[in-house]
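Researcher: Sequence of Serine/arginine-rich SC35-like splicing factor SCL28 follows. Predict its structure.
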Amino acid sequence: PAPSGLLVRNLPLDARPEDLRIPFERYGPVKDVYLPKNYYTGEPRGFGFVKYRYAEDAAEAKQQLNHSVIGGREIRIVFAEENRKTPQEMRTTTRV
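Model: Prediction complete. Tokens:
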């Protein structure tokens, strides 16, 4: 199936979920907006995820909003891998 989640890179560190939700909702119903923080410091990591209900809305938003500006920064959008890591998985990094 086509991906319905987007990974949004180069966000300003003070971005809030509504800063993504508002522009992205123009292209369809958004199920979830997630802005990961550094597990140890709580600092924002400069990227976020937008999950749509429908894959075609995600594709349209990616096409329309890639390279647009949020909070003074030009964002980059790629399709996100569907499985988001849990905090437990973030803690345990596998070393090869």
